[in-house]
Design brief:
mainly beta, binds copper (II) ion
Length: 329
């Protein structure tokens, strides 16, 4: 199998395991000297590429529309954030992250926000240039807000609830990505969107998790995730082709942890900081995506195999900021 040499190599670089493997547990008297073969980088078991992920990482397609009517409803909902873990989330459109929006430079976004939650919320588009006190104001329960903006600048942008305390609203799930394509487009590629974020939890009597404010202020998340679920794409690797251009739109919602985005076994051909076309980085290994920022990463995988993508801040990868590409010819 092609995977075995790679996994063995990955195991040598193992920094921390979340839990001892059964074989290790049976030999508790001696410390383990090898990592279990189904673990890559010690962060998550590798799943099957034949099993599609419940959360689709594929970027929505570009459209030729110049006016985009976007309507988002805010509601509170219990969501799965890790296997067997249910979180009492605050959401845009009932999901975390909220829907991925995609427009083209110069397009108009005609936006309606509806608050179906029992408390005030709001929405702040980083892709917009607008007066926050008008557009990002708190919306009372069952109220709505409508405005337009022109997406003037291409990039990979965050949107989020801006209601105070903002850290609480973001940590509870109120964020998403909006891609603004340059008018001339980008080169053809397989495109994915990964929104990194954190969950700080404590457990209620009914076993639902809710926010732990002390953990949040202490910068101690239980989970650091891509697209709202722990190690989602390690459990369900993303199939890709050897040699094709991969383009990853990475937005870091935080609310606290910087991302050190890296694909194991690859070097980025190009990285566009915040998605800006000016001065892309070429031939780089790991690039910081700050909280509240984004970046567009392009890479090609050179041979068949399993390629983890991580935040190379490895405590965060161990807490779930890890996924896999499964490259096939
Ligand atoms: Cu909110």
């Amino acid at each position: 199998m092609m995977r075995r040499p790679f996994v063995a190599l990955a195991a040598l670089t193992l920094i921390a395991c979340r839990a001892p493997a059964p074989r290790e547990a049976q030999r508790a008297e001696a410390p383990p000297t090898t990592a279990p073969a189904d673990i890559s980088h010690g962060e998550a078991p590798v799943g099957s590429p034949e099993q599609p992920p419940p959360i689709d990482p594929v970027a929505p397609p570009r459209t030729s529309a110049r006016l985009h009517r976007v309507r988002i409803e805010i509601n509170h909902k219990k969501l799965t954030i890790a296997e067997g873990v249910t979180y009492d989330a605050w959401t845009f459109d009932g999901r975390v992250p909220g829907p991925v929006l995609r427009v083209t430079e110069g397009d108009t976004v005609d936006f309606t926000l509806v608050n179906r939650a029992p408390m005030p919320h709001s929405l702040d588009f980083h892709a917009a240039e607008i007066a926050p006190n008008r557009a990002y104001r708190n919306l009372m329960p069952n109220d709505s807000l409508h405005y337009r903006f022109v997406a003037r600048v291409p990039g990979a942008f965050m949107y989020h609830c801006g209601t105070a305390p903002v850290a609480l609203h973001i940590a509870n799930g109120m964020y998403g990505a909006i891609i603004v394509d340059p008018r001339q487009g980008r080169a053809p590629a397989r495109e994915f969107v990964f929104v990194q974020s954190e969950f700080y939890t404590k457990t209620l009597a009914d076993s639902t998790r809710i926010i732990d404010w002390d953990k949040l202020l202490g910068l101690a998340p239980d989970y650091v995730v891509f697209n709202g679920r722990e190690a989602e794409y390690a459990h369900h690797p993303i199939p890709v082709r050897v040699g094709e251009r991969l383009r990853m739109y990475v937005v870091n919602a935080g609310p606290n942890r910087f991302s050190a985005f890296h694909v194991v076994g690859a070097i980025f051909d190009r990285v566009y900081l915040d998605g800006s076309l000016a001065h892309p980085l070429e031939g780089v290994q790991t690039v910081t995506v700050p909280v509240g920022g984004g970046a567009i990463f392009e890479a090609r995988l050179v041979e068949p195999g399993t390629y983890p993508f991580v935040s190379h801040a490895f405590a965060d990868a161990t807490k779930g900021a890890v996924g896999m590409f499964e490259a096939q010819r």
